[in-house]
Amino acid sequence: MPETAHVNVTYRSGGRELTPGEARARDVEGLPYEVVYRAPGREMPLGVRMVAWRAGTVDAWAYDEYGRRTAEAELRMRDDAGRLLVRRLLVRRFPDARAAESDPDCPRTAVELSASGTARISHQPGGMRGDSLEAEVEVAEADLWVVRPGFDDWAGLPVADSLPDWVGGLPDSEAAGWRRVPSRLRGPADFDRVFRAGTEIGGLKVLDPVPCGSVRVPSGVLAVACPDTGEGLSRITVDVPPGTYPMEAAWVQVAEKYWGSYEDVAAVRLLIGDGPAVVWEMALGPGDDTLRLREGEAFGYGTDAAAGAFGDAEVWEELRYLLERARRQGSPERDRLSDSLVGMNLDGGSLGADLAVFCTGGDGVHPVWVGRSASGEVVRVAVRTAFELDLEG
After folding, report:
1. What does the alpha-carbon distance between residue 284 and residue 370 come to, in Å, rounded to a whole number?
2. What is the pLDDT of residues 193-212, one digit of tens each?
3. What is the pLDDT of residues 284-325, one digit of tens each?
4. Where would you tag: which of 44, 127, 367, 388 has the fewest CB atoms within 10 A of its CB?
């Protein structure tokens, strides 16, 4: 976009500012660079465009005066190098200046388009915690594609503050072609059921929960991740009051036709509060958006070691390194480890925080579920470790 009297344009790559000539050269070579739009006297940018022609991608964001992304657009190069498919559009609406960009209660609308000429529209007037109004519509060819602009030919800011006219406003929930989809953030499962002795769940009989030590979380930010996968600071965190929280394992009796009867662990949880959990929500990591989930999908932490752990996010890396040292034979820190029914616990000593490691039923992605009280406070954090559990109340 050419610079105007009201908008200043700068270019960046690799954390440094580029001259227009350097940015132009990167554009010609297909190398990634950023374009930042600013208004004189305004601290936060108006928008940012990320261009990477070799990768066939252009991502653009618009910001409000508080630095929150109000709109996002994803454009993707298709077979015809002269055209870009408008792959995805997202608009957020913030109720006030205090709402964070990641606030799950902020109303949003997302549009996902395909080259076949269809678009999936998702309105979330209540944010991620509310139901979605969704529909699939046919889209005109002119609304699917944009001509790939030259370096000087961008027509405007990366994304507008509103969606295209053909998307329309919030429909009536009974309008033809629209369906109401329950929140993908909030699930119907009651994870407390698998800790309730005497409960029958499918072929499982719930026994008394087994205490598995406790975890100190002095920072008030709980991390849940695999301590052995090496993904660094956990992408799944939950804000909790600073404190020490007991951990429990859901001990169940399994009756199988071929294997007979045996006992196993179905889930683990941290008891954050005393009251009951009246609603359960999927914990999200940075950038996780429930609008991207399809039926049966969930976000979570990844593991290729069939393990997970609860720990303090602020000292997560230090706890991981301490665990690695403590596992070595003859290590002076070996006595910091203690076995539990589900794995092992690490006493973090002077770190003032601990790590509670548990085994899972396998590798892959494991969702983390947060139980909230009627007033919205976190009272449980749970992870299913084995079995396909029907935990609906």
Report:
1. 10
2. 999 999 988 878 999 999 99
3. 988 888 888 877 788 999 888 899 999 999 999 999 999 999
4. 388
Strand, coil or helix: what is 347?
coil
Buried b (16+ CB within 10 A) or exposed e, 256-274: eeeeeeeeebbbbbbbbbe
What is the token pair recorded at 154?
């961008």
Q: Are 32 and 22 in contact (CB under 8 A)?
A: no
Average the pLDDT over 215-220 and give the result: 97
**Bridge pairing between strands 243-256 and 260-271:** antiparallel
| Nearest C-alpha neighbor of 62 from the set 41, 40, 39 | 39
With contact defined as beta carbons under 8 Å apart, do 346 and 327 qualify? no
Distance CA 115, CA 347 (A): 54
Tell me the one-letter amino acid at 370. V
Q: Name the β-bridge partners of 180.
A: 133
Q: Cα separation of 16 and 1, whole Å?
A: 20
Residue in the structure block whose two tokens are 């976009």: 1
Judged on CB neighbours under 10 Å (0-12, 13-18, 19+), 299 is: buried
Query: What whole-number distance in Å separates Cα of residue 112 and Cα of residue 120?
Result: 5
Q: Annotate 199-231 with b (16+ C-beta within 10 A) or e (fewer).
A: bebeebbbeebbebbbbbbbbebbbbbbbbbee
CB atoms within 10 A of CB 71: 22
Nearest CA to 136 among 124, 118, 117?
118
φ and ψ at residue 129, rounded to 5 degrees? -80, -15
Taking 70 as the threshold, does the pLDDT of residue 393 lie above it? no
Q: Given its phi and psi angles, is residue 197 left (phi above 0), alpha (psi -120 to 50 degrees) or beta?
A: beta
Fill in the amino acid letter for 292: R
Bigger pLDDT: 392 vs 69 = 69
181 sits in which H/E element: strand 179-181
Report field, pTM of the whole predicted structure over 0.85 = no
Write out pLDDT tens, residues 255-273: 877 777 888 999 999 999 9
Using alpha carbons, list the distances in angstroms from residue 47 to 16, 35, 65, 149, 389: 17, 8, 11, 17, 45
> Using one digit for the tens of pLDDT, what is the confidence trace for 47-103?
999 999 999 999 999 999 999 999 999 999 987 778 899 899 999 999 999 998 888
